[in-house]
Structures are given as C-alpha cells and as structure tokens.
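Standup notes
- HV: blocked on the assembly model, inputs below
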Amino acid sequence: MGWQKKILRVNLTEGTCISEPLDMGWANEYLGQRGLATKYLVEEVDPKVDPLSPENKLIFATGPLTGTPASTGARYSVITKGALTGAIACSNSGGYFGAELKFAGWDMIIFEGCAEKPVYLYINDDQAELLPADDLWGKSVWETDEILHRVHQDPQLRISAIGRAGEKGVLYACIVNDLHRAAGRSGVGAVMGSKNLKAVAVRGTKGVRVADPERFLKVVAEKKQVLAENAVTGQGLPAYGTQVLMNVINELGALPTRNARDVQFEGASRISGEAMHEPRGSEQKPNLVTNQACFGCTIACGRISRIDKGHYTVVNRPEYWGASGGLEYENAWSLGADCGVEDLDALTWANFVCNEQGLDPISFGATLAAAMELYETGVITDEDTGGIALKFGSAEALTSMVQQVANGEGFGRELALGSRRLCEKYGHPELSMTVKGQEFPAYDPRGIQGMGLTYATSNRGACHLRSYTVSSEVLGIPEKTDPLVTDGKPALVKAFQDVTATVDASGLCLFSTFAWSLEDIQPQIDAACEGDWSLDRLLEMGERIWNLERQFNIAAGFTGKDDRLPKRLVSEPVKSGPAKGLVNQLDKMLPEYYQLRGWDEGGVPREETLERLGL
Amino acid sequence: MYRSLSIDPDKCTGCLQCEMACSYEYEGVFNPAHSRIKVFTFHQEGRFVPYTCTQCADAWCQHACPVDAIRVDAETGAKEIKENLCVGCKVCTIACPFGTVNYNHDRGKVLKCDLCGGDPACARACPTQAITYVDGDWAGYEKMRAWAARTDNATHA
Amino acid sequence: MRHVIVGRGPAGVVAAETLRAHDRASEVLLIGDEPGPAYSRMAIPYLLARQIREEGTWLRHDTTHFERQRVGQLETRVEALNAESKTLALANGTTLDYDRLLLATGSSPVDPPIEGVDLPRVHHCWTLEDAHHIMESAEAGSRVVLMGAGFIGCIIMEALKLRGVRLTVVEAGDRMVPRMMDQVAGNLIKQWCIDQGIEVCTSTRITRIEPGDEGLWLHCEPGEPMQADLVVVATGVRPNVGFLQESGVEIGNGIRVDAHQRSSVDDVYAAGDVCEGASWQGGRGVHAIQPMAVETARVAALNMVGREATHVGSLDMNVLDTLGLISVSYGQWMGVEGGDSASLLDERSGRYVKLRFDGDHLIGGITLGITEHVGALRGLIQSRRHLGVWKKHLMENPTRFMEAWVSTVP
C-alpha cells in the first residue's frame, strides 16, 4: 500500500487508455515517482530519440506518500527526455493535482505516441478518456483550467496543462497544475505540446490507503511537529517563502547578476521576500496577499501575490488584478537580478505570465539575461529585437519579451530556443549560463563552490534541486560547511544527490529536508509501504536512481565532457563580496566526485558500481 | 454547554490536512472526496475557507429526515447520521441550506459532520489552528454568519 | 387543553413533538387511519427495493417514543369536523372534542379517469398496503407498466428494476418528471432510463385497461396496445379534504392557511401536503414535499401553543434518484420574465445545471448528476442574498454555487 498499484497507459497515436498493474518488482527497487518513472522510461524509451518525436514518452508519476497526510506529500513528477537538454528530465510539482491523481486510483500515467489532433485526458476515477482539445488549443493554462471546470461541471477537478508556450514548442515550456504550480524545468511542456496533449484533468474519489495506518499516523504527527519547530520550515518559509534567501544570497556574493557578470545586485532588497511584505504603489498594499500550502503541506511556503492596480503592466487589464502565484526566490532572481530588473510588480507580472502560458521562469529569465548581454555588446541589435532595447535593468524589456516568447512572436521566437542555442546562434556560446543546455539557477558557484559541482553533474542539466548544498554551505543544514572552499564538497554533493533522489521518489517535497533528515522520512515510508524500508535500502535506492539517470544520459550521447560549467564561472573572478577574486574550482572537485561515485575518469559508472546497485 | 468547531479562515493555508483526517475518521481511507469538512479556495482573493456543519440548534436536516436517521448526540450536541437507518433518500441534502450534508454514492448514505464524538479529527490535524474545538455555544446561524462574513470581499471586488 | 392532530405522517408527528416540547401540560392526541406505527411514505421505495425492512420506514424507531412524549394515538378515521362545537366525528361512531386542531391528513393518489383502473393487479404505490400488493405481484421477469413518470414514478423505478421486472414507463407529458425538471433534464433522465433497459413512452396516454388471458391489456394513445402483469399508477396526488365539506373550512387546492398555518376557522390549523399556503415566490399553492411538511407542522404547532411563528412561504424543492441519476430542483427553476438564466449541459456524462435569477438574486435551479453541496442552492435562494460579483461568476459557471454561498454570507 501507499501505492495504488495501477498505472494508466495512454497511447495518443491510437487514442487508447489502458489500465496496467504497477510493476511491483520495480517499485521495490525504485519506490515511486522520480525513481520508478525513470525505470519505466529507461526500459521503454531509446535514449537517442528526438525528445519532440512521438517515440519519446511522457510520464506523470506520484510517489507512495503522495496523497497521504505525511506533511508535504503533494508531489508528482513529470519524467521524459527533456526538450531543452536532450538529457533525462524529471520535473517535480506540488499543488493538488498529484494527490488527486492518486485518489483517482493511479500511481502513474505513461503517455506514448502523438495525437493526430489536440486532445486532453479526462480521468474520473477508473474512467479515463481522451477528449478533443481543439477548443483549448491556443488557450492559456488559466483559460484551460476555467473551461475544463465548466465543461465537466466539477469544481473539484484538478488540472495540469500546458499554455501557449508548450504548444509552440518553446524549449523551456513547463507544465502547470492548479494554476501556478509547475513541473518547471527542462522543457517537459514542449514534449507535452509535441504530443498534441493539452491537459490532464483529474477527479479522484477512491482515496489512498497505507500499509500500517496506526503507525503511519503516529509517526506523521511526530514529524509534523519537527517541521513546526524548525526555524526554516516553521517560520522562515511560511513568512517569506523561498524568497527568504534573496538578501542572504546577495550578501554572500552569490547572487548571479546581469547574466552572472556580477554576483551582487544593488536592487536585491527591493525584490526580496521582505519587500513583498511592504505596502507600495498606488494602493499602498503589500505584494504578498498570503501564503499557500500545497496538498498536505504543513510548511506552506507558497506565495500568493497581487500586482498593484496602478502598475503599467496591469492598467486596464483586470484579468491580472486578482491574486495568483507570486515570486519564489528562483523566479525573483531570474526575472529580477539576472536581468538587472528591480521593479517588483514587473517581476510579479512576468511571473504571472510564465504561469499563465507555461514558461519556466528560470530558463526564460536566464535566456533573456544572455540576450541582454548580447544586446549590450552589440551582437544583437534593435533590428533583431524589433526595436525593443534589451538593456539590463529594463522592466519593459522583461515584460514585453515574456509575452513575445509566450505568443511565439518577434524576438520571442529566438528567446524560445533557450540560452545555449541563442548564444550559439549569435556566435557567443560562452555567454550562455547553462550546463547540458539548461540555464543554472540563483546561486553563483563562485560564491558557493559546491553548487558548481551540483550544476556540472546534475542529470537534468544545471539545477539546484538535485543537490541543494546551499543547505549546508549557507544555512548550515545538516552542518555548516565553508561555501568558498572545495574540500569535502564532492562527498557532500554525492550525499545530497542520493538523498534527494530518494525524497523525489517518495512523494514528499524536498523542502521538508530543511528540517527532516532521511532518518525522519524513513519511518514514514516504512509505515506507508509494504515491506521493510530501512535507511540503508533507501540510501542505496537514491544512488541507484542517480546512476540509472546517468546511464540514460550516457546512452543518449552525453559524456564526462558535458559535466562542465560555463567558462565565465571558472575563469572570470568575482568582483565583489566575500568571494571576491574567486572562480569556481570544478576541476578540483570533479575527479574526486567520479571516484566517490565509482565512475571512471570519463564519468562512466564502473561495472562493479552497476553490479552493486543491481543495474 | 456544548463545545463547537471554530473556524478562522485567515489562518487557513489550504493544506487539506483536515479533509484527510476527516475522511480517515469516516472510512479509514485518506479520501478528501468523502470529507465532511471542505476547504473552499477563493483563488483571486488568496483566501481559503474551511466549511462544515455548525450543528445548528434547530437542524433542518434532522427535521427533514423521513426515517428518523439523524439524531442528536447527547454528549456533543452533534447531529449524527445513523447509517443503519438512513435509506439514502437525500432529502436532508436539499433541506440543509448550508450545503453541508452530502450524499455518498459508494455507500448509498448521506454524510455530515458528527464532531467525531467530541474529538474532531480536523481540528487535531490542522497545523495552523484555523480549525479549533472550543468551549461555548459557537454553533448556529449567527456564528456561521460571523465567520463566513470574512469571505465577503468578493461581493465588493 | 387538548390538542388534536389528524394525520400521522411526518407533519403530524413533528407537530405532536413540537407541541409537547413547548407545552408540558396539555393533552396531545394523534389520529391516524392506517394500522401499525407511524411510517414514512418516502421510505416505501427502499422497502420495495428490499434495502430496508418495514421497521425501516418508521418515522420514529423507539417504540415507546410517543408514550414517553405523552402523545396519545388513536387509530381511526375522521369522518367530519364540526367547527361550531369543536368536535370531530370519528369512523367508530364516537365524537371527539378538541381545543386546538391540526389537520395534517396529507394527500392521496388520484385515479386517472379511464376504464379498468379498478382491476386487480392495478395498484397505486402510496401506502404500505400498496407496497405489499406490488411486492406480491412484481416478480422477476414479470411485465410491469408504470403509469406516470413523475416524482413517485421515478423513485420507485429503481425498486421495480431491482426486482428484475420488465419495465415500461408511460407518461402523458412530453418528458419525464415534467413538474420538477425542464425539457433538457427531463429528456436526459429519459435517455438514462432507456440506457438502463427501460422502455419509456412520453407524450403517451393509457386510455383503457382490460383483462386478458395472460395479464392485462393496456390501450395507448398513440401506439399499439401493450400487455402487463402489473400496472402501477402514479399519476398524481390530491389533498385529503373530503371530510371537511360541511365544516366551513375554506378549501382551495387544499386547506387554505395563513402565514401562521391557521385555516379560515378559529382553532383549526393545517400543515403538510393537505394545506394550500403561501409560496416562497409569492402567490399560493400546495407544496406536497417532505421538508415543507415538517416546517409547516412546526409553525402550526408553535402557534397552537401561543408562540407566534410565521411560515415565510414554501420553497419547492425536490431530490430524485432515478436509477442512480440524481436530480434536484428548487424554487422557480422555470424562471421569471426578465430574469437571467445560466446553464451547462454535458450530455455525455449526464450532467446538467441550470440557475435562474431575478436581478442579482437566485430564485431557482436544477441540477442533474451533481449532488455535492446542493443544499447551498436553498441557502442562496431562501436568504434572498445579493450575489454581487458572484452573479457574474455564476452566469459564467453555474456549478460554483457552493463557493457563492460560502463567499457571500453577509
């Protein structure tokens, strides 16, 4: 139990929806969600396929704790070969959709093939059917959500959809559920769009059972208390969300600014979590309306924000006057600091549009930042941009470009390629702040050394959510390490990567680990699932998942040469702050990391490693 | 004096722990669809409003029941569905003007809040004290009006 | 003081309990003309479907309930009321004095004016006795014709189907449940029944029933004659007021009452299906529905003990389960002139919702296949709530009525 033991296989080419038993042998090796869906993908998809071809598959997967009272048990992941990266993609989202899918009786949906015409999947418990989406095609995520609620006459329906960005093949299009929670990275929305799949709408009334309810509820209650009593999960995140970090990281000199030319942003305090609490603008009301929890989450870090009605982005546009998903730290950074923009309402609006049209704000902001640098160095001209001055600091450039990308218009079509392809096209690949084609997020590896190794080795391209060593290097969780040194970082990164893979396979949110160690999570999994889920088994499983992802990437054509950071990070010393004069010393960390992983010098898992992990 | 559920929407984050707790109490499964307390989301306002039966003193549902299947628990004052007597006619679901008595298709019976016999699972599960079980006669229409009034900005927006 | 209540249905029982709750001293006497404990006609379909036993239909399950409440019970029929002398003439030849009288005699099924309706194997489905007759005749495989696809007809359909009969429904109106459902919903219900293997003939009248060698022959207009082993007649009901003809009590479509449930005669009150009182939307009418029966009974009883209580007018409301397809209607679902209307239809899933407005008030509605929080429709209608921006939201998506309710409580 924990699992529903049932997966839904949807063949979009044939138009069929078939129920299959979950492979429990694999569930015992990979638990669920990220791990289990990766196993299915590896078994079923040739790693060399074009991500946007019908041969690629798209998997929506929950974990055994999704839809249970285990705090943060809201998560589902979308697993596919990423459109942006060509590497394995696994994008994780909260909200309510994942739990609803579980309540309908499904652990996972596997989409294969490609529909001839636009369709959406409607699931009402056991009943699953593909319905025509001609009327939805071209609509935003928000419009789609509204229409499907109306069409199915069910206020409780939970919807996950792509916006226009996914339809138009923006390579960093995401999949948005519950209006503003997103499976954000690696272009999973572009894959969905390539399959002519507009949305998944779910209603579930069957519920979720766990193996040992009494033990489960007892341990769940204890562990909720741990979250409540922890300073980060009990106070910082509810009050400021992830935006609690903006000022902290800026002071640390690790806030990539203006396409990472700088590491401190003079406007950071004006776009920070604290600023979101301050009355401002014509209404003199704060940007932040409230915090919101995902399903079952007792942290509630989500931001719900409103744009000032007097702000230029929303004048005479009442559709943007209501509250919606506000700025998280990564988005405030990418849309703000990285583009040099310090207009909080402009950032909030751009973020709304990303949710509305299904764009990954990290990749969008970082791609725009690269374009801004190309513009300022004269490589990109007004002729290219249609007369819009892509200057760092220009809120107008930000807000007009986010629309152009979403609508597939003008220079937006170039920005839709992502930073790597854009910079290559204009002859300056070195200005692309990417690893494996994916833009890195809001931590400069010159000021937080471990994050350099994190980005370089992340299986889905540069990412903070594969080993968030910021926890240790900045926040001191579980113990403080020096962010400016490389000693011990390979082991730290490996440990974080393995634990994270386990958490991502469970249905829980990674943010729980600000307060919970795997020792807190293990008894919750053990009580919910059949079998004996020991700590060692879970740790080994995390490592197994990591290596399985790596194998997929190697088979897809990636090598150790792709475990590289952008030149700027390893060659241009930081100009200010505590890390002044430093570059990231990836070369000092990578060989040791390979060794700790049991991989050869080229970054390929050794035979004995694979054997040990049962791969 | 009976104790009653007190609801403060300002404290609610929309986590739905209450719905899971309620449904588990009801049928031993985590299943918000069968929860007797529901959190309503007013997305545009950023508001989450838990809503359930207030055990009104003169209960419409109880009066409307044609087979005497809704009884008052002497200890808690809760109006409880006696499942062995309920025939599933659903008259109570249309009689209750608060919309808090619902029909459960799977069981062919109606369901409503019964205060869990005096230890409401929703209040226990709520991480923010948005739902508490308090002393005093909080139940009834006047009180319901008072707290529901806090959602009224929609009428002026 | 002696309170006498005529009629042992829900209205009579609730009135007796209310009288006792507010008046410890007076005598309360409940008269009914059917044998056995007071029961609920609403429960008969579930008895027919074998989901409950006869005890399951009882209005009160504690057999000592009325004794403990000190409510006297008399099993007899009232033949006449003499308001001058404040006496009732009973079927056993005696008379009974009262100080205050509540008439809660309910209603009875109407026989359609056709030949053969009195034949054996032609039954109403109204009393427990009727139910016993039907249970004896409706065996698996037998051919049953249901005359009338109104509320009662639909609600017993499932019971008949569960008994394994071959069922045909004949309805004179152009759709099913014409008095509580509009054309769209009535047709959806019809299609639903057809999909469940029931033959449905709307806009069809049975003109004559005659005995044949193998069962009954039913002549139809239009259509060919059909054979049946059992005919269940459910073509409507009318208030039981026959015994009041000489009483001076004013009768319209039922016993006419004021807002305090007082009849035209001093100390005589009426409640439930037998009375014609104020309608919620204005005007008057007979509202033969369970929730209004008990509400009018409570108002009557309170006034009988001298506590002023006012009935604000009966809001029509119905919930109907037709072979698992649940439909609900409230108030003025047919709408008013100049009022807005919002509806959504999903024929594929059999879902339908329609709301009717007068200005920014909700005045009625219909749902089909939607059961969650439907009571809130009553709340919105009966509180005469200004919907404000929720009018617009509901016009766009009428399924959001519960949100409108939660959000607009003043």
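- HV (later): unblocked. Chain A touches chain C through nine residues (CB under 8 Å). The two ends of chain A are 25 Å apart (CA to CA).
- Next: hand off to the docking folks.
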